[in-house]
UniProtKB/TrEMBL annotation:
GO biological process, one term: fructose 6-phosphate metabolic process
Location(s), subcellular: Cytoplasm
Organism the protein comes from: Citrifermentans bremense
Name used for this protein in its record: ATP-dependent 6-phosphofructokinase
Location (main, coarse): cytoplasm
GO (cellular component) term, any one: 6-phosphofructokinase complex
Length: 360
C-alpha cells in the first residue's frame, strides 16, 4: 500500500477540486493513503498543513470553485521569501522540503499547477522526489496538452461578459472594451472574442497598431455599425511599445496590475477616435465559480490518470489531453516554453475571416 501526497500551486482555477477528488477516489480504491499539502509547496514547511485526505474529505467538492487545499504563489522552495532583519530575502529551503517529504513517508507527489509550479516540480524531481504533474491554468498556455482544465470555465465567463457588454455598446453607440486575463498568451481573448462576436481582439502575440484599430472602428461606423466591442488580453501591448511589466521578486516579469492594459489602450484609442469608450476589467471573476462540465470531466480524469502514472512509476510525467485521450508527456517537454497563439495560425486566420480585427 502506498502513501502519496497532493498539492495545488499557483493561481486558483476552476476544476482543481475535481482533480483532488479524482486522485483521492482512485488512490483509495487501490487501498492507498493520500496526504493533502495545504497552500502549495508552502505547506511542507508547516507540519499542521499536511493532512490526510479520505473519501469523506472530498465528498461534495466536485462543483466547487477554488481548491479545498488552498494554494500560494509565493512558495517556491528554491527561492522562498523570508523576512530577515526586516528585509525580504529569497532563501533555498528545498532541503527542508525534501526531508519533510521523506518524513511524511510519501512514495510520490502529485503537483497540480501551471508553468511555475511544474518548473519547481521538475527541480524537486532532480533532487530525488518522485513527482507526477497535472496541468492547470485558465490561460491555456501550457505546451504538450490540447487544453488545460479551468480554461473552458474562464472562456464561458468571458463570453457571457461579452454578450452582456453588447447591449450597452449597441444602445449607447459606444466602444466597450473588455480586459480579460492572459499575461503572455491571448487564448482567452481570442476564443471568447470569437464566441462573443467581438469586433476587435488584441492579444500579446500580435502587437496592435492603434491607428488601424481606430480605422476599423470608423469603418464599422460607415457601414452603420455605430458601436464596437473590443477584447483586450491583459498582456497586449502596442506596436513599438512594451508590455506593462515589472520585475517581481525572483526576477520573474509579471504584468504590473490587472486593469492597466485596458485603461492604457482606451486612453490611446480615445486620443485618435471621437467616441464614447468604456472599459470593464473582468479580472478574477474568470478564475472563480463552479467548473464547467468539460473542466469537471477532464479534471476528474486527469486525477485518475495521475494515480495510474504513479502506479506504473512514470515519474517526471505530466498528464495531458491529446485528442480525446488522456495520456502523459515528460514534464520537461511541457515547460520548455509557453503555448502561445501563432499569429499566422489557423485560429487567427479564422477570426480574421469572420471579420474580426486583430490589431494589425
Ligand atoms: O496565470 C493565471 C492568471 O490568472 C493570469 O492570467 C493572471 O495574470 C494572473 O494569474 C493573476 O494573478 P494574481 O491572482 O496573482 O493577480
Amino acid at each position: 500500500s502506498k502513501r502519496i501526497g497532493i498539492l495545488t500551486g499557483g493561481g486558483d482555477c476552476p476544476g482543481l477540486n475535481a482533480v483532488i477528488r479524482g486522485v483521492v477516489k482512485s488512490a483509495v480504491g487501490r487501498g492507498w493513503k493520500v496526504v493533502g499539502i495545504e497552500d502549495g509547496f508552502d505547506g511542507f514547511l508547516h507540519p499542521e498543513k499536511c493532512r490526510c485526505l479520505g473519501l469523506e474529505e472530498v465528498r461534495g467538492i466536485l462543483p466547487l470553485g477554488g481548491t479545498i487545499l488552498g494554494t500560494s504563489n509565493r512558495g517556491n522552495p528554491f527561492a522562498f521569501p523570508m523576512v530577515r532583519e526586516g528585509k525580504v530575502e529569497l532563501v533555498d529551503v528545498s532541503d527542508e522540503v525534501c526531508s519533510r517529504i521523506k518524513h511524511l513517508g510519501l512514495s510520490a507527489l502529485v503537483v497540480v499547477g501551471g508553468d511555475g509550479s511544474l518548473k519547481i516540480a521538475q527541480e524537486l524531481m532532480r533532487r530525488g522526489v518522485p513527482i507526477v504533474g497535472v496541468p492547470k491554468t485558465i490561460d491555456n498556455d501550457l505546451l504538450e496538452t490540447d487544453v488545460t482544465f479551468g480554461y473552458n470555465t474562464a472562456l464561458e465567463t468571458a463570453t457571457e461578459a461579452l454578450d452582456k457588454l453588447h447591449s450597452t455598446a449597441e444602445s449607447h453607440h459606444r466602444v466597450m472594451v473588455l480586459e480579460v486575463m492572459g499575461r503572455y498568451a491571448g487564448w482567452i481573448a481570442l476564443e471568447s472574442g470569437i464566441a462573443g462576436g467581438a469586433d476587435v481582439i488584441l492579444v500579446p502575440e500580435i502587437p496592435y497598431d492603434i491607428e488601424k484599430v481606430s480605422q476599423a472602428i470608423l469603418e464599422r461606423g460607415r457601414r452603420g455599425r455605430r458601436f464596437s466591442v473590443v477584447v483586450v488580453a491583459e498582456g497586449a501591448f502596442p506596436k513599438g511599445g512594451g508590455r506593462v511589466v515589472k520585475e517581481a521578486a525572483g526576477g520573474k516579469s509579471v504584468v504590473e496590475r490587472l486593469g492597466g492594459v485596458g485603461e492604457a489602450f482606451s486612453r490611446e484609442l480615445g486620443g485618435v477616435l471621437e467616441m464614447d469608450i468604456r472599459v470593464t476589467v473582468l479580472g478574477h471573476l474568470q478564475r472563480g465559480g463552479s467548473p464547467s462540465t468539460f473542466d469537471r470531466c477532464i479534471g476528474s480524469r486527469f486525477g485518475v490518470k495521475a494515480v495510474e502514472l504513479i502506479e506504473s512509476e512514470a515519474f517526471g510525467h505530466m498528464v495531458c489531453l491529446k485528442g480525446r485521450h488522456i495520456t502523459s508527456v515528460p514534464i520537461e517537454d511541457a515547460i520548455r516554453s509557453l503555448n502561445l497563439i501563432d499569429p499566422g495560425g489557423e485560429m487567427v486566420r479564422h477570426a480574421e475571416a469572420l471579420g474580426i480585427m486583430l490589431g494589425r
